[in-house]
Amino acid sequence: MERGYLHSVVWIVLVTLLALLLLSWLPTLKVGDWQVRRVDLLADLRNDSTSAHHEVIEELTADDVSALQVSSRIVIDTCRAGMTCIDDMADDSDRGMNALYRALEGRDTLGRPVRIAVLGDSYIEGDILTANLRQLLQERYGGSGVGYVPMTCDAPGFRRSVKQRFNKMWKSHNANDHSGYDQRWANFTGHYFFGHSGATMSLSGVSGYLSRLDTCQQSTFYCMGNGTGRVTATVNGQQVQSFDLNPCGRVQAVTVNGRVGNVEWRLDHDNGLTYLGASLDGDRGIVVDNYSLRAASGQHLRSISEQMLADFDAVRHYDLVIVMYGLNVAGRQTSEFATYRDRMVEAIEHMKRNMPGTGFLVVSVGDREEKRGGAFRTMRGVISLVNAQQRIAYDSRVAFWNLYTAMGGEGSIVRMVNQKQANLDYTHINFGGGARLAQLLFDAITWGHEQYHNQVEKGGHP
Question: Which residues of 223-249 are buried (b: 16+ CB within 10 A; e: fewer)?
């Protein structure tokens, strides 16, 4: 009996190995925009001549840049030592960094906070990176609060920058849904919610994590649709204010003001409205909103309705939108991103048309490693994707920041794993890594603003 059992096990192992070896000879399979990971048992033994060690970041040539004939772009002849500067490729339409810098210059008389939206995938999930960027910017330019938060989330305890609670009377949708999803109601992450009377969501400031998150000056509740409703805000457990929601067919925003430490929003009545989220904001300074969607490539941005973009821009105008995707696009075998590039240019142009006065910054994918030849190396496809993302910014006439270079290029995510700043998937950063990369992006943004400010002081037109 034991001999027969061992004989069966040996045959199962041999058949399995044979099957895996045969699968390794199959070509890479693609289903739409998704690439099925290829089986390769011998990857660690193969001396890959196409290693990322031999790939080179292809910068735009001088002829490419001069062809833009830009007059609004700030040309920085020298970047501070050790810094990866933002390359602003905006033309006379001024849809790069100048929109943010202009708002920062006039922030004391703007009558609202300067606002930045960061659109990304799981790399920034849980407010990783964006929480530290927010803190750095608010410490320099003023402001408070965590910004915009969707009505519900999958793991509210994972996000350290706000305490969020909600009951079970919400039904959520996002752009990853396979059924029941209606893009008419979706905003930057595709999230929208239906609520029944009695649905609640609360946001509380936090202390002991990062600064300027414990209290703020206002909280705003966002919804849309042709239905009616009534919502009540309870601030700090005491101050109560109710609002009637009218059937206007557009995004509505209702706000409570004061020293807001925590706020609960409660639906007293609902008749066919769609709900988006709520915010904790300062009334001045700067706001940084995190719009993360797990498994997103960024192409869903093309399907946001023109009305949603225009309406949301009217009630929560952004001076800068940071477009930060790539983890779900780069692959082991993928090196051709022409289709992705065209679709992302289309997405950015779509947002530009419906968000007048907003600047855009494309941030490249960071380092992502795979094991080849017995060593960790930058995943094949990452370098090509960085080049494609630079071209997306160039073709869209917006700004570009090379995260791959800024974080150290080849092997940088391995070093971050060793320093416990990234996860063992050699792809995702953790909160410590987010703090490090946020500092790099903050330095690039503020360096660019300093150049802008100096040029304005000299009487020039950036």
Answer: bbbebebebbbbbeeeeeeebebeeee
Tokens 């849309």 belong to: 224
Among the listed residues 119, 194, 115, 204, the one whose alpha carbon sits nearest the alpha carbon of residue 152: 194
Q: Could you tell me the two tokens for 210?
A: 């990062």
**Whether the Cβ atoms of residue 291 and residue 118 lie closer than 8 Å to each other:** yes
pLDDT digits (tens, 9 = 90+) for 174-215: 988 878 889 889 899 889 999 999 999 999 999 999 999 999
Residue 273: in which H helix or E strand, if any? none
- Amino acid identity, position 261: G
Report whether 208 contacts 223 (CB < 8 A): no
Residues 6+ apart with CB under 8 A from 2: none
> What does the alpha-carbon distance between residue 241 and residue 236 come to, in Å, rounded to a whole number?
12
Q: Which two tokens stand for residue 144?
A: 């408070």
* The pair of three-digit structure tokens given for residue 209, joined into one six-digit string: 């994590």
Higher pLDDT, 393 or 457: 393
Q: Where in the chain are the domains?
A: 44-143+285-462, 144-283
> Can you tell me the distance from the alpha carbon of 396 to that of 344, in angstroms, rounded to the nearest whole number?
9
One-character DSSP codes across 305-323:
-HHHHHHHHHHS--SEEEE
Q: Indicate the class that CATH gives domain 144-283.
A: mainly beta
Q: 289: closest CA among 113, 97, 153?
A: 113
* Residue-level pLDDT at 190: 87
User: Which residues lie below 8 Å from residue 431, measured CB to CB, with a gap of 6+?
Assistant: 126, 128, 131, 160
CB 82 within 8 A of CB 444: no
In contact, 36 and 29? CB cutoff 8 Å: yes
320-324 and 114-120 strand pairing: parallel
Q: Which CATH class is domain 44-143+285-462?
A: alpha beta
Burial of 411 (0-12, 13-18, 19+ CB in 10 A): middle
With b for 16 or more beta-carbon neighbours within 10 A and e for fewer, the 186-209 pattern comes to bbbbbbbbbbeeebbbbbbbeeee
